[in-house]
Amino acid sequence: MSDPQNLAPNGLSYKQAGVDIDAGNALVEAIKPAVKSTRRSGADGEIGGFGGLFDLRAAGFIDPVLVAANDGVGTKLKIAIDTGRHDTIGQDLVAMCVNDIIVQGAEPLFFLDYLATGKLDVEQATAIVNGIAEGCRIAGCALIGGETAEMPGMYHGKDYDLAGFAVGAAERGTLLPRNDISEGDVLVALASSGVHSNGYSLVRKIVETSGVDWQTEAPFSPEQTLAEALLTPTRIYVTPILSALKAGIGIKALAHITGGGFIDNIPRVLPDQLAAHVDLSAISVPPVFGWLSRTGGIVEREMLRTFNCGVGMLLAVTPDDAQRLTDHLAGEGESAAIVGRLVPRTGDAVTFQGALAL
Known about the structure:
Elements: H1 21-36, E1 64-71, H2 76-83, H3 89-102, E2 107-117, H4 122-139, E3 142-150, E4 160-171, E5 186-191, H5 200-210, E6 217-218, E7 221-225, H6 226-230, H7 238-246, E8 251-256, H8 261-265, E9 274-279, H9 287-296, H10 300-306, E10 311-317, H11 322-331, E11 336-344, E12 350-353
Parallel strand pairs: 2-3, 9-12
Antiparallel strand pairs: 1-4, 2-4, 5-10, 5-11, 6-7, 8-10, 9-11
Helix pairs in contact: 1-4, 3-4
């Protein structure tokens, strides 16, 4: 009887088809220290199993409601790919998910990632996952698993894509927005770190038409290259907001200013009878937005619907607690400012006074 191992001596292998199982195994070993560094109460398992485990009771919850979010990084990835800078894009991935969880008053507990590529580069993937782990450490959530998919034919050249999935929890009855949000509540803005992870198709178009090279000095940040400045990772707001909530400050609602900017995100947390009235002159606008506006010829309203314009998170708080909130957040290292209030809605859900300092 013939030895099966000797059949089809010229047959193909999975590696010859473009999938390197050994590279995948090497990546798992390479990222284990980073993954281990994100452990927290409730998550003590090792990666490599078929599923990640989390113990809600060990995390201190009694009657929890789970909150889940998933997101990607968008075409900001193209800048990372084109410039070979992959160390911070993972933090963006985590931020986009956990910031969506904290706005509902929930604590992010664990995170899973999905990396898809045409050919797995272990060094590159390790840098990406290290960035994810850094984001998890900042957010206080555990990286309990993920998936790396090597798919030749689906992705070409150096292209890859990322997706993230986060789960958080809050005790029943504590979720935001509160049902007593009302006229006169004050709007407090938390500063962004820059463009964050939205609007990059427009950003890249502006860069392309400007003729500025990725490796040249950023016109709005001379100490950085344009690539470094535009790859500044998305700020993660979990720790300071959790701290404010636990301090009993009267936060009624939060809006994560992502795709859709002010105009599309703020109404998501408002009742139908209320509008947000925002004083644009009270917002400290980072120089990158002025450069994008001038270079791209972008009018103010388009800026407000595309970019965060310097506000990564907007909080609605009782008037009596507004100053206490800004002081508390300043103590947590955040730049916070009162930028408006809630008013009766007679037309648009978001209205403005003043102008952005672009």
